[in-house]
């Protein structure tokens, strides 16, 4: 299990540690019971932190943040008690296991330092800093096998590519994976129709190719991670980046990254300022939460090649046909005990304003299919912050209980009907696909 922490959100995370979960050395972990006013205080703290971050961003003045051993201990204890860690660790020494890892992303987009704080660092210098950090870690037994990731650059425009090249020349062999961030839209100008543009969805594919070209030039085969992704920048837009419509970009991101061999993506964020988060300020799941939950429940790590007949059209001269019906295929998750190994899962994005029909062929033709169709719930349409699964609204049963995610069985040989502007998952049962029988 891994814990990813962005230090831009760290003060709020520490407050959660202090108020919600305590570690008792004699009794182990326990959940502290607090009155409702504590939750209100947490919400106020989050709002205050949002204002602080905005003020620092626009004034280009940033306060110092000191991480003490006590702060890190509280963070580890919180993660341990929450079941996020496979082993236990203390900043003052103690046990550890190789299954434990902690990612602390200290800075974001170092290529933008001059704009943000009036100072700059080039890729070569940052690479030297990473190399020195690696040497320091290796001197300490506890950290000698720690993993290091960077440089966490922004969108790979020309100057950013030059920054990455300088970094890779010096520290390409030092980092365990190369990281970058991607935001699809400027959150200050986004509108709902932006989320339906195929040209926008394809911007990520272009970025992946640029990053891969640089990385493979200096360290062929080095892993690449998308360390930060959000549907919109600048904190996002209310009723847009936290709505059903944002799911088109999110699901396409997951499918595209997997198909390009990128196996780690860090989502910004679970609960934070702005509107790119997965739950609202009352901790109610937003559409992307349910989409992520279904993805984790149904999608395994093995990506499958698919062939879709009948979609190819010959474009007119000078015109590019961009696909509004996007289909990805994986082996069904091995951890989902509702399906035997060898089953496969398709997930489909339909950006058309009309329904589309898909007929499964070959060995898939006579198999029973389980449908998980996500649609907006309520009168707000694509702006909705609630979703329905196969026609039933999704909501928490209580504060700690998720609802049952029930599929709709489709008879063998039935044509899949994909409603307009929807996202869906289809588990083809008992295919006994050779690629999916084993890990």
UniProtKB/TrEMBL annotation:
Q: What is this protein called?
A: Heparanase 2 (inactive)
Q: Which organism is it from?
A: Cyanistes caeruleus
One GO BP on record is: extracellular matrix organization
A GO MF term:
hydrolase activity, acting on glycosyl bonds
May I have one GO cellular component term?
Answer: membrane
- PANTHER family recorded: HEPARANASE, INACTIVE HEPARANASE-2
> What Gene3D superfamilies does the record point to?
Glycosidases
Which top-level group of life is the source organism from? Answer: Eukaryota
Q: Which Pfam families match?
A: Glyco_hydro_79n
Q: Would you identify the family this protein belongs to, as annotated?
A: Belongs to the glycosyl hydrolase 79 family.
């Amino acid at each position: 299990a891994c814990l990813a922490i962005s230090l831009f959100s760290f003060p709020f995370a520490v407050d959660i540690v202090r108020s919600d979960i305590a570690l008792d050395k004699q009794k182990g972990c326990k959940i502290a019971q607090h009155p409702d006013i504590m939750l209100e205080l947490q919400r106020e703290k989050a709002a205050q932190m949002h204002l602080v971050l905005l003020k620092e961003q626009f004034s280009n003045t940033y306060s110092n943040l000191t991480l003490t051993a006590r702060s890190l201990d509280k963070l580890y204890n919180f993660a341990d008690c929450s079941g996020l860690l496979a082993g236990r660790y203390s900043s003052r020494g103690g046990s550890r296991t190789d299954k434990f890892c902690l990612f602390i992303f200290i800075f974001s987009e170092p290529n933008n330092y001059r704009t943000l704080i009036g100072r700059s660092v080039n890729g070569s210098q940052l690479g030297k800093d990473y190399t020195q950090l690696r040497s320091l870690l290796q001197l300490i037994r506890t950290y000698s096998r720690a993993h290091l990731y960077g440089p966490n650059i922004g969108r790979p425009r020309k100057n950013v590519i030059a920054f990455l090249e300088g970094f890779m020349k010096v520290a390409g062999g030092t980092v365990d994976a190369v990281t970058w961030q991607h935001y699809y839209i400027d959150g200050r100008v986004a509108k709902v129709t932006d989320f339906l543009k195929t040209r926008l969805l394809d911007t990520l594919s272009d970025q992946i190719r640029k990053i891969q070209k640089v990385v493979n030039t200096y360290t062929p085969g080095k892993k690449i991670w998308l360390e930060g992704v959000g549907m919109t920048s600048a904190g996002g837009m209310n009723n847009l980046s936290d709505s059903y419509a944002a799911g088109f970009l999110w699901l396409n991101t997951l499918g595209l990254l997997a198909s390009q061999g990128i196996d780690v993506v860090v989502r910004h964020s679970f609960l934070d300022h702005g509107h790119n988060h997965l739950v609202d300020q009352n901790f109610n799941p937003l559409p992307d939460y349910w989409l992520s939950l279904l993805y984790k429940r149904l999608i395994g790590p093995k990506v499958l090649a698919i062939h879709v007949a009948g979609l190819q059209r010959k474009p007119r001269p000078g015109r590019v046909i961009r696909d509004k019906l996007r289909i990805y295929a994986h082996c069904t998750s091995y951890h989902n005990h509702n399906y035997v190994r060898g089953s496969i899962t398709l997930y489909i994005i339909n950006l058309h304003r009309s329904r589309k029909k898909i007929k499964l062929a070959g060995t898939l033709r006579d198999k029973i299919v389980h449908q998980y169709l996500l649609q907006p719930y309520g009168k707000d349409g694509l702006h909705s912050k609630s979703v329905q699964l196969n026609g039933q609204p999704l909501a928490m049963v209580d504060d700690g209980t998720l609802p049952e995610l029930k599929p709709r069985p489709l008879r063998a040989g039935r044509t899949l009907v994909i409603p307009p502007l929807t996202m869906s998952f289809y588990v083809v049962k008992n295919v006994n696909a050779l690629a999916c029988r084993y890990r």
